[in-house]
From TrEMBL:
Entry superkingdom: Archaea
InterPro entries assigned: ATP-synt_VA_C, ATPase_F1/V1/A1_a/bsu_N, ATPase_F1/V1/A1_a/bsu_nucl-bd, P-loop_NTPase, V-ATPase_su_B/beta
Organism: Halorhabdus utahensis (strain DSM 12940 / JCM 11049 / AX-2)
Keyword ATP-binding among record annotations: no
Family that this chain belongs to: Belongs to the ATPase alpha/beta chains family.
GO biological process: proton motive force-driven plasma membrane ATP synthesis
Principal subcellular localization: membrane
Membrane topology classification: Peripheral membrane protein
Protein name: A-type ATP synthase subunit B
Length: 471
């Protein structure tokens, strides 16, 4: 342990110290302030004669008289199964009034990269209970599937619903693997934090969860370590204890704003819109910690949530996130204004790994065909809505009106289910068949005839009307 009293400058969250020998990058630092308070920090930049330290707490009160101790180790997260049910702050310290954590291990928060050769392809279905996700953009174990939202939209309610309802279906589960949720909140308000905790406690979801809370009035630098602490905990539970872990991180926009603030304090040359040029690498370091390892029972699945500034999906944060992750779920402002809950816009949403997690033995044999037909029918309805604005509904054919009715029912019955309703995959697909049965049978050109014979409702109004027309 080395100790110095050679602080030369304090700039925002950064403290610059002269040293007489090189200090290790990412090394943990303790700064003793005059009133006896000790602040923690991390080495951000190191040369032969000085270091730049990012302080996790406020830099107020730090001056040239303060002592700086370099501890000779990087930051580590104390991990144990007993973390389940606990609430921690953004630096990993308990804030729920419970006992101190007695760790089984202390693991480096940077984590170890998964050998690509040892990665197992993400497969097997995770049921969120939300039809627009399970039926149309299925989440599979080991996937990273972000939520793209906007300011003022109910992404927090959607995040809580997923945390509350997500499960591994019983037929896929076994005695050796359990399901856990890691919830990392970054830069949220105290009101949002209270809402999160009230929901976790009211529903009992806290028992299988580890919650990390970084509030808006906490130092921005703390935001850069909160997701790493959460993912380190997830890796321990998944790869050493065999849990299937769902990691929800909200809001990644606040995380990236913290990167920009630190970059400005370091006087770095900015990249797109003032964000650091290394932001892509930094985000990849987080997102790529999702996955499965061959021969290991557990898995880590990620749902990062970000609010797109000005609802612009070409903004650097959603743009780079989209490059790294395997799809996206769009939360739509128009559907939200119509009262659709959750307001997930299916046409622009995508799960690139969906095909690996659905079908016979995973969800249901007709899932893939039904999803494809729903997409096609809803896209047709959306096109016809544009046409109605020009020529009026009366100018459309009976077939076109059937598709318009389908689009309305799809939003009100399939997508709109509220935040307290959990649907099984069978319930989701049954609702889908009820909607598709309102279309003439010959329109179902994306579904295998065998499935139409099994699931198509011949007694629906659409079928009866079509038969009468033929007569």
């Amino acid at each position: 342990m080395k100790e110095y009293q050679t602080i030369t400058e304090v700039s925002g969250p950064l403290v610059f110290v002269e040293t007489d020998e090189p200090i290790g990058y990412d090394e943990i630092v303790e700064i003793e302030v005059g009133d006896g308070d000790t602040r923690r920090g991390q080495v951000l930049e190191s040369t032969s004669d000085h270091v730049a330290i990012q302080v996790f707490e406020s830099t107020q009160g730090i001056d040239r008289e303060c002592s700086v101790r370099f501890l000779g180790e990087t930051m580590k997260m104390p991990v144990t199964e007993d973390l389940l049910g606990r609430v921690l702050d953004g630096t990993g310290r308990p804030i729920d009034g419970g006992p101190d954590i007695v760790p089984e291990q202390r693991q480096d928060i940077v984590g170890a990269a998964i050998n690509p050769f040892s990665r197992e392809y993400p497969r097997e279905f995770i049921q969120t209970g939300i039809s627009a996700i399970d039926g149309m953009n299925t989440l599979v174990r080991g996937q990273k599937l972000p939520l793209f939202s906007g300011s003022g939209l109910p992404h927090n309610e959607l995040a809580l619903q997923i945390a509350r309802q997500a499960e591994v279906p019983e037929e896929d589960d076994d005695e050796e693997s359990e399901f856990a949720v890691i919830f990392a909140a970054m830069g949220i308000t105290a009101e949002e934090a209270n809402e999160f905790m009230d929901d976790f406690e009211r529903t009992g979801a806290l028992e299988r969860s580890v919650v990390f809370m970084n509030l808006a009035d906490d130092p921005a630098v703390e935001r850069t370590i909160t997701p790493r602490l959460a993912l380190t905990t997830a890796e321990y539970l998944a790869f050493e204890k065999g849990y299937h872990v769902l990691t929800i991180m909200t809001d990644m926009t606040n995380y990236c704003e913290a990167l920009r603030e630190i970059g400005a304090a370091r006087e770095e040359v900015p990249g797109r819109r003032g964000y650091p040029g290394y932001m892509y690498t930094d985000l990849a370091n987080l997102y790529e910690r999702a996955g499965r390892i061959e021969g290991v029972e557990g898995s880590i699945t990620q749902i990062p949530i970000l609010t797109m500034p000005s609802d612009d999906d070409t903004h650097p944060i959603p743009d780079l996130t989209g490059y790294i992750t395997e799809g996206q779920i769009y939360v739509d402002r128009g559907l939200n204004s119509q009262g659709v809950r959750p307001p997930i816009y299916v046409p622009t949403s995508l799960s690139r790994l969906m095909d690996e997690g659905i079908g016979e033995g995973l969800t249901r044999e007709d899932h893939g065909d039904v999803q494809s037909q729903l997409y096609a029918a809803y896209a047709e309805a959306e096109d016809l809505r544009d046409l109605v604005n020009i020529v009026g509904r009366e100018a459309l054919s009976e077939r076109d009106n059937k598709y318009l009715d389908f689009g309305d029912r799809f939003e009100s019955e399939f997508v709109d289910q509220g935040y307290d309703t959990a649907r099984s995959i069978d319930q989701t697909l049954d609702i889908a068949w009820d909607l598709l049965s309102d279309l003439p049978r010959e329109e179902l050109n994306r579904i295998d005839e065998e499935f139409i014979e099994t699931y198509y409702d011949e007694g629906s109004d659409a079928t009866v009307e079509a038969a009468e027309a033929d007569d």
